[in-house]
Amino acid sequence: MTFPDQPMPRPRSKPIRPSAEQVRRQNELTAWHAEWTAKWADRAGFHPEEHPKPGSDYNLHHVLLDAPAEAREEFYRRADEIMGRSPAA
User: Fold this and answer.
1) 28: buried, middle or exposed (CB in 10 Å: 19+, 13-18, 0-12)?
2) What sign results for the dihedral spanned by CA atoms 20, 31, 44, 87?
3) If the chain, 89 residues long, is cut into consecutive pieces of 10 residues, what is the mean pLDDT of each piece?
């Protein structure tokens, strides 16, 4: 967000291509998300009435939002590992 007295940020002159390692990690994370979603989809709730905002994509992400706590912990633990981040203590 900019304020009236601040100039707009300059756009990048060229897009920055992710490294081969970043692409590999993102692809692995995508595969993990698909595997995890299939594993937990039947145990996650589906409560669209709790997300009435027009244009909400809740139906696409409800498994991650409404999965049991143990499932979310499993997902984020592995996601951190894939992305090379230290797991939360």
Assistant:
1) middle
2) negative
3) 68 85 97 94 85 80 86 95 81
